[in-house]
Design goal:
The complex is a heterodimer of chains A (314) and B (246). Chain A is 27% helix and 26% strand. By secondary structure, chain A is of the alpha/beta class. The chains are: A alpha/beta (314), B alpha/beta (246). The complex binds flavin-adenine dinucleotide and adenosine monophosphate.
Chain lengths: 314, 246
Amino acid sequence: MILVYVNSDHGIGKSAMEVVTYGKKLGDVTVVTAGGASDADLAKLGQYGASKVMIDRNAKADDAQQLTRLVATAAAAVGAKIIVFSNDLVAKAVAPRLSVKLKAGLISGAIALPEMGSDFTCKVNVFSGKAFGNVKVNSDIKIISLLPNSIQPELTGADCAVENFDGAVGDIKVKVLETKIPEGEIPLTEAEVVVSAGRGLKGPENWGMVEDLAKTLGAATACSRPVADIGWRPHHEHVGQTGFAIRPNLYIAAGISGAIQHLAGVNGSKVIVVINTDPEAPFFKAADYGVIGDAFEVLPRLNEALKKFKAANN
Amino acid sequence: MKILVCISKAPDTTSKIAFSAGNTQFDENGVQFIVNPYDEWYALVRALELKEANGGNVTIITVGTAGDDSVIRKALAIGADDAVRIDAEPTDAYFTAMQIANYAKENGFDIVLTGKETINYNGSQVGGMIAEAMDLPFVSLAAKLDMNGNTATMEREVTGGVQVVQVNTPFVASCAKGMAEQRIPNMRGIMAARTKPLNVVAPASVDMLTSFVSYDTPDAKSSVKLIDPENMDELVNLLHNEAKVI
Ligand SMILES: Cc1cc2nc3c(=O)[nH]c(=O)nc-3n(C[C@H](O)[C@H](O)[C@H](O)COP(=O)(O)OP(=O)(O)OC[C@H]3O[C@@H](n4cnc5c(N)ncnc54)[C@H](O)[C@@H]3O)c2cc1C
Ligand SMILES: Nc1ncnc2c1ncn2[C@@H]1O[C@H](COP(=O)(O)O)[C@@H](O)[C@H]1O
């Protein structure tokens, strides 16, 4: 039996569909979740392969200790041998706790399905995306935390049953005073297309052309580290070895030199487009498509070309 | 206030990543080792700031072999009071966390800080594991940490935004960007570090739940296709028809 934890507090996101699809490829899937999602929304997870969704409406979806108890109780209830998370910020708090509670080996940052021969191994990102490792798990129960954008959601079934579940979640020790989530932005780690820019843009006042292009593409925006450090852009946009690691389908980088620490966070991207005035910029070596040119001219031109393309294809 | 900061050794961020012994081991040839940036820049420096403001003691702890001592001395040079090395190869996050949790339980700390993740294995596992093993609250990816008596107010990253939380000591937190500014050790610190206590402790017997069996490096990209900066229609065309990403 496969137990999949999904985050449903802000609706059913793409990462939820990914982990259910992933779980379905390993066996019969039960989903466990906390918080206040509607039954109708949760039932849709059946379309991606869940046989059943169990929800504990008393559990707080942002308390790691409660979620750990919830998932542990659910795992015992269904006799789960494999527990799957999406490797997001919730999983980073919950999965390690669960690993200790169940004495179950944790594979974090999985990017593929496990090999389940005589050994149970799974491929993960290591060295900040500069290499892959194959991790073997020795324990009876295994926990896999899957990197977002590692699998395409697949519609395979119909709506499933949704049951209320008592996860015996206990009390809360961490008091939440305030949660600030800007509305309407695509979370960077989930975005399929990311438009990113660096110091080559000269100043924060020039980010309009980056945002315009992102808007046309339905993309998230990102930046290099110095840009976040000098305060041109918010810290949560910083990608790279010491920022977020992302693996979108398309990464467009303008005015970024492509230092090894930057590449570490983005070289899992499927396709990379680099725009830089310097033909010697190291980023061109990691790029699929390169434009040697001035971002101030190329970005607006690319935006116009995309708009034209979208108009012709709608 | 007693603060324990978990420090790990990591390859310098500019290192070429290669493997040896039939791709089963990280090739340390020519690799410079540093204190894992999150542990040094954020966890350690914030711990020192809290000590400077409120008094107390900052102990650093590493699960590692004698080869890690130079990295430990570097962290002492930045200002930690003393160091503990649990003498074992830290190959599995569970093993590592249980060693640290054992030591922390026996020696009683108000706050245990880790970095957000190690830049080599990127598990982001050890902090949460320590918290569970000690049955303590865990605040992951804290970007701010202020103490008022025994109460900590922290800002932490959540999906798409930030959250402000409050928790009483004892607790465990992992530290991310925003927490503090990097400190460069001065000559006095480096001299003082030579004589600060570094206690080597034998490991407890703990099972390993996971092990790395092999590694690969990503395929080199085939060479870049250059597009005329005047002709962005061509780029759009390639992204649609060739790369199929739009
Ligand atoms: C321990 C450590 C960790 C680090 N972690 C990260 C990390 O996580 N992420 C990260 O990004 N960096 C990281 N760095 C920093 C990294 O080494 C580089 O300094 C940084 O990525 C450079 O940012 P940049 O490319 O924006 O700026 P620059 O290196 O200044 O490059 C600017 C580029 O813009 C180009 N340019 C200039 N004008 C134009 C124009 N008009 N049009 C188009 N192109 C133009 C230039 O040719 C140049 O290539 C880290 C460094 C260290 C030491
Ligand atoms: N061998 C180790 N010794 C001490 N602390 C460690 C060790 N490995 C990891 N840590 C701590 O745990 C954090 C998260 O590590 P990881 O789970 O490997 O990403 C690091 O930032 C360190 O603070």
